[in-house]
Amino acid sequence: MSKIHAKITAVEGYAPEDVITNDDLSKMVDTNDEWIMSRIGIKTRHILKGDKGPSDMAKIVVDRILQDKGISPEEIGLVICCTVTPDMPFPATANIVADKCGIKNGFGFDINAGCCGFVYGLTTATKYIEAGFVKKAIVIGAEKMTSIVNYEDRATCPIFGDAAAAVLLEATEEEGVGVIDEILHSDGVGVKHLHQVAGGSCHPASIETVTNRQHFIYQEGQAVFKWAVVKMAEVTEELLEKNNMQKSDIDYLLPHQANLRIIKATGDRLELKPEQVLVNIEDYGNTTSATIPMLMYQNRDKFKKGDNLILTAFGAGFTWGSILVKWAL
Ligand code: UT7
Question: Ligand 1 pocket by C-beta < 6 Å: which residues?
């Protein structure tokens, strides 16, 4: 019997219309466009206003996938929502999205792997498909990062934005396309450098946690930078070696969008041409779990069947990883 593989058969992305510009930020904190562009590379970030959550953006992309593919919600066996900003602590945002989209015959859960969420989520869904557990899975990256941004902290407030993007993953017996291989890593040494102190069970919301602004992102930028600038390239080299591939075999790199300097350094170490390294950070900022599927959505028309895409990310945990996808469409 031939082996079952998982292939991406659709991708969609969405970002809310409202944006925050560098000039807007310069009215809130002591910063300016020149510093943000030269140190991070961001011009605008999108913001989801009001009491909406990641599930509202995710519903838009999942509905579009189902409609465009002519698939009934009952055919979806698994929904994974990768997010660090769930609608609420529980139930999982995946369950909320499934409910909003009429997906009733499957199961779903969230994955919190920081900015590496989508890489972890795509890997997890692939394993369920390869094991024959499900035939069709939706993997979503959806974040309302602006809900945990401290707009009094100039070191973090320029970085993050809101968006959602998702892929449909389907079982196939076709050889040589789809999600080929992956390597994932994590190291708790990163906990102290990048986290949100309050809102969990150790520090539930209280007047003190709110007053002390502990419900926001805490990041020691330089410590995170030093790891991120090395690890995405390193794990990609590891993945290439494992698959007997050369750097020149990569067609496109879809790197997590945290800092243009990190993205460029990763592309350079992998000896890629600038046009092979996909970038959208200038317009969207860091949308955490949504950066990679959003890049895939925006560039899908460039990809040819059989192209080697490398998806790589680094994030809170620390978590990092790299996936090799042979484009199937
Ligand atoms: O997505 C998850 C993974 N996250 C990452 O990969 C993020 C990795 N880290 C970074 O991207 C960068 O470290 C940051 C963008 C967060 C910060 O850039 P940096 O070049 O590392 O700046 P820094 O923290 O070393 O700060 C340099 C200076 C400081 O001033 P002094 O102490 O030299 O006087 C900061 O206070 O820049 C100052 N600064 C700012 N100045 C103007 C920090 N933020 C700002 C700002 N505007 N927004």
Answer: 31, 35-36, 39-40, 115, 154-155, 158, 221-222, 224-225, 228, 258-259, 262, 286, 314-315
103 and 183 part of one domain: no
* pLDDT tens-digit map of 149-159: 999 999 999 99
Parent domain of 322 = 179-326
Cα of 44 from ligand 1 centre, angstroms: 17
With contact defined as beta carbons under 8 Å apart, do 163 and 14 qualify? Answer: yes
- How far, in Å, are 14, 71, 128, 137, 170 from residue 134 at the CA level? 26, 15, 6, 7, 9
Parallel/antiparallel/unpaired status of strands 5-14 and 162-172: antiparallel
Specify the ligand 1 atom closest to the Cα of 154: 48
- Burial of 271 from C-beta contacts in 10 A (0-12 / 13-18 / 19+): exposed
- With 0.85 as the threshold, say if the pTM is over it: yes
Tens-place pLDDT, residues 216-225: 999 999 999 9
Kindly give the distance from the C-alpha atom of residue 39 to the centroid of ligand 1, in angstroms, as a whole number.
7
Whether residues 257 and 125 share a domain: the answer is no
Considering 125, 143, 176, which residue would you say is the last residue of a domain? 176
Q: In which band, very low, low, confident or very high, does the pLDDT at 121 lie, cut at 50, 70 and 90?
A: very high
Contact 313, 119 (CB under 8 A): yes
Please tell me whether residues 155 and 24 are part of one structural domain: yes
- The pair of three-digit structure tokens given for residue 319, joined into one six-digit string: 């978590």
Q: Of ligand 1's atoms, which has the minimum distance to the CA of residue 261?
A: 11
Residue nearest to atom 3 of ligand 1 (CA): 315
Q: What is the pLDDT of residue 1?
A: 65
Of the candidates 172, 15, 143, 6, the residue with the CA atom closest to the CA atom of residue 78:
6
Residue nearest to atom 21 of ligand 1 (CA): 222
